[in-house]
Amino acid sequence: MTRVTDDTRTRLRTCPLCEAVCGLEITLSAENRVVGVRGDREDPFSRGFLCPKGASLGRLDEDPERLSEPMIRDRATDTWHAASWEEAFDLIAERLPALVAEHGRQATALYLGNPNAHTVAGALYLPPLIRALSTRNVYSASTADQMPKQVASGLMFGDPLTVPVPDLDRTDHLLMLGANPLESNGSLCTAPDYPGRLKALRQRGGRLVVVDPRRTRTAKLADEHLFIRPGSDAYLLFAIVHTLFAENLTAVRVEAEGIEEVRTAATAFPPERVAERTGIPAETIVRLARELAAAPTAAVYARIGTCTAEFGTLTQWLVDVLNVLTGNLDRPGGAMFATAAALGIVRTRPFRLGRWTSRVRQAPEAMGEFPVATLADEIRTPGEGRVRALVTVAGNPVLSAPSGARLGEALAELEFMVSVDRYLNETTRHADVILPPPRTLQSAHYDFALLNFAVRNYARYSRPLVPLGDRPSESEILARLALAASGQQPEPGRDPLAAVDELIIAGTLHKAGLLDRRAELLGDNSTEQRIDMMLRLGPYGEWNPEAQPVEQAGVSGGLNLQVLLDHPHGIDLGPLRPRLPGVLRTASQRVELAPRPLLDDVERLRARLTEQATGMVLIGRRQLRSNNSWMHNVPSLVGGSNTCTLHVHPDDAERLGLGAEAVVKSAAGILTVPVEPTEEIMPGVVSLPHGWGHSDSAQSVARAHAGVNANVLTDDSIVDAPSGNAVFNGVPVTVTPA
Ligand SMILES: Nc1nc2c(c(=O)[nH]1)N[C@H]1C(S)=C(S)[C@@H](COP(=O)(O)OP(=O)(O)OC[C@H]3O[C@@H](n4cnc5c(=O)[nH]c(N)nc54)[C@H](O)[C@@H]3O)O[C@H]1N2
Ligand SMILES: Nc1nc2c(c(=O)[nH]1)N[C@H]1C(S)=C(S)[C@@H](COP(=O)(O)OP(=O)(O)OC[C@H]3O[C@@H](n4cnc5c(=O)[nH]c(N)nc54)[C@H](O)[C@@H]3O)O[C@H]1N2
Ligand code: SF4
Ligand SMILES: [Mo]
Hints:
Blueprint: E1 9-14, E2 23-28, E3 34-39, H1 52-55, H2 57-61, E4 71-74, E5 79-82, H3 85-103, E6 108-112, H4 120-133, E7 138-140, H5 147-157, E8 165-166, E9 173-177, H6 181-184, H7 194-203, E10 207-211, H8 217-221, E11 224-226, H9 233-246, E12 256-257, H10 259-266, H11 271-278, H12 282-294, E13 299-302, H13 304-307, H14 312-325, E14 335-336, H15 375-380, E15 389-393, H16 397-400, H17 404-411, E16 416-420, E17 433-435, E18 445-446, E19 456-459, E20 461-462, H18 474-485, H19 496-511, H20 526-537, H21 561-566, E21 571-575, E22 591-592, H22 596-607, E23 616-619, E24 646-648, H23 650-655, E25 661-665, E26 670-677, E27 685-687, H24 700-704, E28 719-720, E29 725-726, E30 731-737
Parallel strand pairs: 6-7, 6-15, 9-10, 9-13, 10-11, 12-22, 15-16, 16-17, 23-27, 24-26
Antiparallel strand pairs: 1-2, 2-3, 4-5, 4-17, 8-14, 18-20, 19-21, 23-30, 24-27, 25-26, 25-30, 28-29
Bound molecules: ligand MGD (2 copies), iron/sulfur cluster and molybdenum atom.
């Protein structure tokens, strides 16, 4: 460890590692090595909170095994050599356009991974890349994650990005399903120090109820924890809806269509009919409904455990149906919509689902994407439109997608593959070219996506802490990739980023009637000027005639980049405010409680109600010192409790005669895993974390803590019908002694 000396400097930056957006205070040595990380106590949102991952940001950023130069693979020998940026882009410009010329645009696919939600490059420079490729074969981690929430929100509110979040700091009652923020730090609910906020809820007399097949750390903090049979949340929520109607407990306060249709649909799901399926007694369900209705304010919140399930979209829909029926949507203490500072995509027409379908499975698109669960089919099924080339950006689908191992075999059949990634890993090993992004600390940071889901309105911009030198930023990599994919060379002497930005700036200012003010945009480069424009035109912006006031002391006038630069700890933009009907984009201009595609899907739910729960089922879990697949090469983040084991209830372990290891078999695959008996899991359920399985990894620490790939067991042939989302929870398995 480098000593803190006079040459060190301390700088502020947002942590990019999870959705909690904590402010960090980072101490750097003269050589730009991280010598210390602390939570930024002056950040008005995170107030000094820091988790073990944030504390390890330096080690992660300086991992000696991360890639620093482009890599090119020789297919004949399967060996890699470092290449110059010119060589790498030249190869792409030679191969991709030729492939498209021969086989058409659909022959190229794109897969976008989770870290894109945390980078400026992902937010601002993926859209031009998608346009340049102009293929319908766009896939992302969203269909292994939150697509059900986005589809439900799109149908109910008209915009899939209009997602309500629980008003954590003011609610009196929180019903939480399938989320474990004490390990994950929260998701689709940006809340730094989520654990502290939950403790505060209880301290002010509020009630927290957690529904989870595992007694998680979050469950232990709650007033009440209920085990639920995996995959049955939609039944539970429908029965709560049923009870609200049956007992006249509804109190709708917003303009809503379709209340009668919801009442009718719920008649099929009285509490006594779902009790067995959910494992929750009818009396308890009735009590949950009464408590929800009686609380002065309440919010229902459900996350990944309920999204990555067969009825994910119905569950997410019912969450907000409950928020509406109990009068809690869009009111303080209920479920509210954040107001992010940067101007986002302005949607003018209502969200539509299934505008086109995939070639092999006829899966409907959602938000311009096909389900990642069908990517392997599109690569492997011969015929016109077959995917022959793939570009991945910040994704590791071999470990993160359902039937990931099968997808890995499909990747090996591609004719050409490019990955923008910091590692040579389970996915990128199939690439022909890997383009590594710079260090995190060499990148600027602004949370374009996550601040739309914040529990308090807030903005913070961080400039790069370490100079880039003569290598490209990730934004430039994506811009040059877009050029190479269309067979173009960057114009000599012209910054390819500036070319992209100029088009967007001119278009946006023209629409706003402000083209003559182009010269006023501030910033060191075109990206910053774009951010300045988005802030100025945004809901608190200097150029927005209807801007909301910025109430923070010391900030006068509307927001622009300079105001954010002057407030490096971030700016508090106040508690969430009611936003209906302004945010609605539905045809009716009301909240649509009974969208047709969802009512249609209720039939599928109904048909499965009486299904007997036999055998064991598999679910996932997250670990505090981990993040999906890519943080296992940092010594401080592996080992201890952070290991890849199968959680099994001791009664099941005994009944099944399990020893130290078990063989777990599903319809999709088979694995041998170490067994960890624990009372914290519901009988009949086993849990395995995802993101492991590094036995062939090029990273030495990850290889030494390999674990197994949980997605060998998950089955890509089963998805949540409306959204196409992958199913990771409730996978039928057999468990036998090894
Ligand atoms: N069984 C099971 N599977 C799951 C889940 C589950 O709960 N259970 N969860 C799902 C969820 S919620 C998600 S979001 C997905 C995640 O799915 P993916 O996004 O496909 O997987 P990650 O492991 O997050 O991979 C991120 C990749 O980005 C690279 N990377 C990291 N930082 C950067 C960067 O700044 N730039 C670039 N270019 N690359 C970077 C890493 O090296 C890694 O290769 O996994 C899903 N898979
Ligand atoms: N430390 C850490 N933090 C992370 C990540 C990480 O890998 N590690 N990943 C990040 C990502 S990509 C995301 S999307 C978020 C996710 O954030 P969360 O949604 O909070 O994710 P989990 O911690 O996996 O919690 C999901 C819970 O659902 C439960 N569950 C499983 N099946 C069911 C079911 O059928 N019904 C119900 N009611 N519960 C069920 C599981 O037992 C688990 O406790 O976390 C992010 N933060
Ligand atoms: S909670 Fe998330 S944002 Fe905060 S320090 Fe940890 S990883 Fe970073
Ligand atoms: Mo995720």
